[in-house]
Structure prediction request, 79 residues.
Amino acid sequence: VMSYNLLADSHAWKYRNELYRGIPDFILRWPRRLRGVVQEVKALRPDVLCLQECEDFDGIAAELRGCGYEGLHAPRAGG
Prediction:
């Protein structure tokens, strides 16, 4: 079982000056972070993968489908 907090893209930019000061923009951009997550999943090959703060379910599902994963999106309930 692998659990991964993806850092929602909206949070990365909303809190950029507070939490990610000094981090270059190209590192915070979602496409780069997505590639890193996919590489890690491929390397670890978990049977079950749980993702938090997943704002791009369709994008990550498409990437992981090629690795043999299928997914279910359960959006956060409440506020």
User: Anything to note?
Assistant: The mean pLDDT is 93. Strands lie at 2-5, 49-52.
